[in-house]
Every structure is written in structure tokens, then in C-alpha cells.
Amino acid sequence: MSNYLLLIVVAFVLELIDASLGMGYGTILTPALLMLGYAPLEVVPAVITSQLVGDFLAVYFHHQFKNVDMTVGSDHFKVAGVLAIFSLVGAVFAVSFALKLSEFALNLYIGGLVLVMGVIVLTTRDKKRDFSWFRLLFLGSIASFNKGMSGGGYGPTVTAGQLLTGMNVRAAVGITSFAEGVACIAAFLTYLIAGKQVDWMMALMLAVGVALSTPLSALIVKKIRARHLKLIIGVTTILLGLLTVFKTVRIL
Prior knowledge:
Order of helices and strands: HHHHHHHHHH
Largest sheet: none
Radius of gyration: 17 Å
Oligomer: single chain
Structural class: mainly alpha
């Protein structure tokens, strides 16, 4: 019972971060659960399943709090749809490349990319940009490539990338949740088709923690001033990038 409560609390805290900033849930939760002694094949499907629940709940509450307009046909919905499609297609094409790269090179690339994007977000946070579909598609391609290559580096790249394309900071967080939710559906179905077992109890406990945190996350995004939110996203992106690079170099 204590282990179940721990899973709920950890999921609650990390989803609070993820649904507020558009990043951090899987990046932090997976290694945290591995350090607690869970096996990788237990952790990954459960994390994906719970993240699937969290992402779409986050979209719902962000929409309800008017952080993002996910009405079918709206500009935000179109951007989310494009990013979601790129997530699916990019994951398929990236597999062939992933087989040719070492895990070290892959993780170092993702960590370096996320770190650079965080620095750009911080140094340009006061600069207003006109929305650009070209920049969005370019950065969306990179994000989906990352997702397909390793399952990581998606949230920071997509969230920070949208800010660099001129997207409103609050909308960027909600859109990232939608796009990553679609990617999680593909990953979840892939596990089932491949015959992998899902630890449903772990997934359920994580999903409970996630579900409890999403309304609060959307409210936090609504209340924080946009400039402050962009600052927090920039700093968090840099920290996640540094963490990825540190963990990669440390294994040498």
C-alpha cells in the first residue's frame, strides 16, 4: 500500500510540473522509478499509459481555463493537429536512424538540443515574434524525430519550439499536451501489438496521481504572468538539457 501511495504522490508532483510547463513528466519519472527498483519493462509502458491520461486531461482543463482554444477548426487546434501528425510520422521514420546511432550519441544530441533551445527561449523571451508555420514545421520535425529515436526530448523541444515560432506561451503548453498525448497513443498501441505486458496496477496508481494534479496545473498556467511563465519554461528546459547531458557523459 505504501508503494502505491508513493506512486500516486510522485505522479502528482511530476504531472503538476509537466502540465504547467509542457515538459518533465516522463523525463524525470522514468529514471526515478528505475532508481526505486522497478524494471524498465514495467516502468515504460506504465509511464506511457499514465501520461496518455494526463495529457488529454491537461488539454481539457487548459481549454476550460481558456489557456488554449482546442475547438475543432481553431488555430490552436490546427497547430496541435499538425504537431500530432508529425509525432506519428516522425516516430516511424526515426526508427531506422535510431538503429544506426549509439545510445550515447543519441542522448548527447537530445540533451544538447534541449539545452540550446532553453538558452534561446531565455535570451529572446522579451522579443515578440510573428507566428511562422515554417518554423513550427521545422521544429516539429525535430521534436518528432527525437520522440521516435528515443522517446525523450519531446516536451521541451515542442514547448520551447512553439515559443520560438511566435506561439502564445499558455497555448504552447496546452498544445504540447495534445500532441504528446497522440504520440503516447501510438506508443501504447505499439506495446500492445508487440505483446508486451503492462503493469496495470502501476499504471492505475500513476494515472490517479496525474488526474488529481491536472486541474491545479491548468489553474497555475492561467494565473502566472506570461513573461514569468516563459522564464520558468526557459530555465526548466535548460535544466532538463543539462541533466540529460550529465547523465549521458557520466556513463562513460
